[in-house]
Amino acid sequence: MDGKHMQIGEVATRTELSLRTIRHYEEAGLVVPSARSQGGFRLYTERDVERLMVIRRMKPLGFTLEQMRDLLDATDRLDGDELSADERELLLKRVRGYEQDAAEQVAKLRVQLARAEEFARTLHKRVERNRGAGVA
Questions:
Q1: In sequence order, what are the residues at sequence separation of 6 or more whose Cβ sits closer than 8 angstroms to the Cβ of residue 30?
Q2: Is the distance from CB of 34 to CB of 52 less than 8 angstroms?
Q3: pLDDT of residue 3
Q4: For 40-92, how does the pLDDT look when each residue is reduced to its tens digit (9 = 90+)?
Q5: E-assigned strand segments in the chain
Q6: What DSSP state is assigned to residue 135?
Q7: Cβ neighbours, 10 Å, residue 68
Q8: Burial class (CB in 10 A: 0-12, 13-18, 19+), 112
Q9: Strand order in 42-44's β-sheet?
């Protein structure tokens, strides 16, 4: 990381999250700005952006704020150096649980998407069959 700091607007653009959503995640304790400017503006690093991207990816899969917090805690601790082998294995087990939950949600979403695409094709075919019919 180059230590570059970004203001919340740039982070919002990069993460495609609203300023309000980023502030909400801050209030919920999921992300904390790495610094503040002399004027009191929130300043974020690349690592903060990565953290927000994890949150953004978890949200549509139905994970709760508490689950997001738990996963982020586990991954933060895994990134640390002072873990025993047993602690590391317990943390990996937690992360694997989220990995499995995410895979199950993705599978459910694929089924929903396939059904939605089938519905859209059905409507398209109906429109095409009736194009021009009844036009005076």
A1: 51, 55, 65, 68, 69, 72
A2: no
A3: 63
A4: 888 999 999 999 999 999 999 999 999 999 999 999 999 988 899 999 999 99
A5: 6-7, 35-36, 42-44
A6: -
A7: 22
A8: exposed
A9: 6-7, 42-44, 35-36
Determine the length of the chain: 136
Relative to beta strand 35-36, strand 6-7 is: unpaired
Structure tokens at 2: 């180059």
105 contacts: CB under 8 Å, gap ≥ 6: 61, 62
Helix (H) or strand (E) holding 72, with range, is: helix 65-79
Tokens of 110: 């694929």
In terms of C-beta density within 10 A (0-12 exposed, 13-18 middle, 19 or more buried), how is residue 67 classed? middle
The CA-to-CA distance between both ends of the chain, in Å, stands at 67
Q: Rounded to the nearest 5°, which phi and psi values hold at 42?
A: -65, 140
Cα dihedral 126/128/133/136 (nearest 10): 130
Overall pTM surpassing 0.85 (yes/no): no
Rounded to the nearest 5 degrees, what angle is found at the Cα of 70, between the Cα atoms of 66 and 74?
170
Distance of CA 92 to the CA centre of its chain: 20
